[in-house]
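call fold target=RING-type domain-containing protein
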Amino acid sequence: MSPSAAELLSPLFLVAIISIIVVHMVVCYLVLDMIDQQVDSNDEISRMDAYDSGLSVKELQGISCFYLEGQANSSMCVICLDSLCEAGLCRSFPPCNHVFHAQCLDPWLAKKTTCPTCRTPLRP
């Protein structure tokens, strides 16, 4: 009394269908999880961009400029890697007082609000 081929095929067919459904659900879960992680990552990047969006023109004008007086030429602007000379217009980064050429520091501060030398933030 051996079972017929149709009787054996039914349980195998049912197991195959259930297996396909389970694999499909696992793949869907993994894809949705990956999409969710990308959205979270983009939100974090947006928050960082909003925090580190740079200074406005008005804020840049609030940082005073000066000419170096009596300092040796051994001082260097770390943005352009040129020496700071007495004839050059300079700015001092307020929190840490590092000195840079004004024409070098202004574009930097328009993009970032950290010191180019020590990464001290301008805003707390």
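return ok
The domain at 57-111 is CATH 3.30.40.10 (Herpes Virus-1). The longest strand covers residues 89-92.
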